[in-house]
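Section 5.1 Outputs to date
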Amino acid sequence: MKNNFIYWVSGMIFTLGMFAIYAFKPASNNIPVYEYKQFSTIESVVPGGLGRSRLLSTNVNGTLIEKDLLNFYSLVGINFGNISNNDVIIVDKINEYSDKGWELYQVTTGSNTNTVVGSTTSGIFITRYLFRKSK
C-alpha cells in the first residue's frame, strides 16, 4: 500500500511538473512583422472657401500624390455638400488600400486654428490614416 501511495505522489509531482513547464514556457518568437502605409487629409476651415484642402499620399516610388478636397466653408457658411463629397473621396481611398490587402490600423486627428482678438480667422483639420499588412 505504501508503494502505491509513493507511485501516486510521484505521478502527481510529475504531472504538475509537466504542467508547470508548459504553462510557464517562454512566448514563441512568432511575432508578426508588418509594413506600414499612410495617407493624410488636410481640410480647410477658412471662411469664404478660400482655403486649400487636400488628400496626400505617396506612391511606391515615394512620389507625393495630391488629390483636391473641397473646403468646409463656402461664401455662405459651412457647406455640408462639400463635407459629403470629401467623405466619398476619403472612403474611396480607404477602400483602394483595403482592396490591396492593407488593414486600417490607426486614425489620428488634429486641428489648428488662428485666432485674432477672439475671432477665428482660419484653421485646418488634419487626419492621418495609418494602414498595415503582414510582410
